[in-house]
Amino acid sequence: MTDQPEPGRPDAPRLTTREAAELLGVKPETVYAYVSRGQLSSVRAAGGRGSTFDAGEVRALARRSGRREPSPAGGDLVFRTGITLIEDDRYYLRGVDATELARRHSYEEVAEWLWTGELRPGVRFEAPPETLAAARRTVGALPAHSGSTDRLRVAVTAAAATDPLRFDLSPQAVLSSARSLIPTLVGALPVVGGASEAAGDSLARQLWPRLTARPVDTPALAVLDAALVLLIDHDLAASTLAARVAASAHAHPYAVVSAGLGVLEGPLHGAASGLAHRMLQEAVDRGSAVPVVADHLRTGRRVPGLGHRLYRGEDPRARTLFALLEDVPQAAGALAAAREVVATTARHAPLHANIDLALAVLSVACGMAPEAGETVFAVSRTAGWIAHALEEYGERPLRIRPSGQYTGPRPPQPTP
User: Fold this and answer.
1) Inter-residue contact 161 to 258 (CB < 8 Å)
2) Which of 169, 239, 243 is CA-nearest to residue 400?
C-alpha cells in the first residue's frame, strides 16, 4: 500500500515511523515492509517528511505478530498466518467468530475445518487399535501419581513409534496422523468415571469420563465441547511458537505436538486453570470469594483466572462458556463464586475473567480434578498445533533462527 494524503482526522492518534517501530519491536525499515505487504497503512506526514501510522492499527499488528524482529541473517520472524485473528476484543478462526463456531459445531468439525477449510458435519476421529493399545500400555507404566500432561506426552511418543509414515510431511499424511493422534491421546488417559464408550462418540463424550466420575449430561457436555473448540488455537501463544519452531526443522507432527506439550505444562500457560480451580473451590467451600481474594492479595499472589494481555475487556471465550454454564444446574454455586471473584477484584483493578476462570467453573461444578482444565487445553490445542505445522511446513525450512547477543567475557581468555 502506498502513502495516501492525510485524510483529515486530527483527532486520530498517529505515530511516527520511529514510534511505530518501537511499539512493534522492529527496525524502521521493517515498518515500511509491513506497509508494502498490506499489513499496515500509512499517510504522509505534514510537509511530506516521512509517514505516520494509526496507533490502533500498529497495536493490533503488534498483538498479532508478537513484536518479532527479523534476524540479521534475513529470516523473517513475523509469522504470516491465516489461522487466528484477535482484534478489538474479538477472536476469529479463519475470519469466522470463534464463539459462534463453539456454539454451533463440535470440536472435530471445527478442527477439520481449521485444517482443510471444509466443514464436515458429524465427522468423528478414531484411534487405530494398535496405536491406542501401545499408548495405553505406555501410559499404564507410569507411576500412579503422574499428571495428565505426563500421560499425554508419553502417549504421543508411543503413537509416533507405531506410525512408520510419520516422516511423510505431505498435508494428507500429516492430517491422517492428526485424526488418529487426538483420539489416541484421549483414549490413553485412565477412566475416572464408569461410563462406557460407544462407537461414534464425539471426542468430548470420550473425554468426559476421563475428567470426572459424575454421569454426563447434555448441558455440561455442551460446555466441554465448546471449551475444546475455543481452546483450539489462540494466535502465537508460547506453546504454538514452540510447535512452529519444531515444524520449521521439519520435525514430524508427533514431535511438533510434543514440543507444544512441553511448553504447555508451564504454570503461566496451560496449567494456569489449575490455580483458578483451587481458588474457586476454596471460595465455594468457604461460602464467599471475598476472604479468598483477600488471602491472595495479602500474600502477594496474583488472583488467577483474571486478565489477558490480548483483551482489554472480558475474554470472549470466557463469556461464551459462562453463558453456556448458565444451563448447567450444578454449576450455579461455582458460577456465582467466579462472578464474586471478578467483582471483588474490580474494586482494586479493572481485571476481567479469562478462560481459565471459566474452565475452573466447569471443573469445580462437575467434580473434576484441578488439572482437568489443563487436560482439556492440551487435547484441544493439539489440533491448533497441527494447523500451524501445516503452515510452517510450507515455509522456508529453519527460517526461525534468531541471533544471540553474546554478553560473556571477550576472547581471548586463558584456558581454565
Assistant:
1) no
2) 243
Beta pairing partners, 51: 44
Query: What sign has the CA pseudo-torsion 173, 174, 178, 184?
Result: positive
The C-alpha cell 466443514 sits at: 119
Q: Which residues contact 152 (CB under 8 A, 6 or more apart)?
A: 185, 188, 189, 261, 375, 378, 379
- Is residue 261 within 8 Å of residue 378, measured between CB atoms? yes
Structure confidence by residue, pLDDT tens digits, 261-309: 999 887 777 778 899 999 999 999 999 999 999 999 899 888 999 999 8
**Which residues face 52 on adjacent strands?**
16, 43
* Residues 47-73: b if buried by 16+ CB within 10 A, e if exposed: eeeebbbbeebbebbbbbbbebbbeee
Please give the DSSP secondary-structure letter assigned to residue 404.
P
Q: How far apart are CA 198 and CA 217, in angstroms?
A: 16
Nearest to 305 by CA among 270, 354, 269, 266: 354
Please answer whether residues 272 and 372 qualify as being in contact, where contact means their C-beta atoms are separated by less than 8 angstroms.
Answer: no
